[in-house]
Design a protein that fits this description.
Elements: H1 5-11, H2 15-29, E1 39-44, E2 62-67, H3 85-103
Length: about 100
């Protein structure tokens, strides 16, 4: 099957289509006005997406942890003797919080 150019061209996104898609996603998932508890947001200073993460969260059963000298996903592995002190502390805090949540 061949796709002709007029058909393909009609499928491409333009600014209006992109804005509409963003609005639909925000409507479905709550955008940045979500009220969610029991979440730990970790942000890594060496992550290229750092500007898009949650750096503060005001709900009692949620928190944000900033890892200045870590890359994305560094907090997802078990605590290791080779982890920098900052990362070890963050992983310990995550363990404490999740353990507390699990016990209530």
């Amino acid at each position: 099957n061949k796709i002709n150019f007029p058909f393909y061209s009609s499928l491409r996104y333009n600014r209006s289509a992109l804005q509409s898609a963003v609005e639909n996603l925000n409507l479905i998932y709550g955008g940045q006005e979500q009220v969610i508890s029991h979440v730990i947001y970790t942000n890594a200073g060496l992550d290229p997406w750092i500007g898009h993460g949650v750096s503060e969260y005001g709900l009692i059963e949620s928190e944000a942890i900033y890892l200045q000298y870590a890359a994305a996903g560094a907090d997802l592995s078990s605590i290791s003797a080779s982890d920098p002190v900052e990362l070890t502390r963050a992983k310990q805090r995550i363990t404490e919080v999740v353990t507390r949540w699990a016990s209530t």
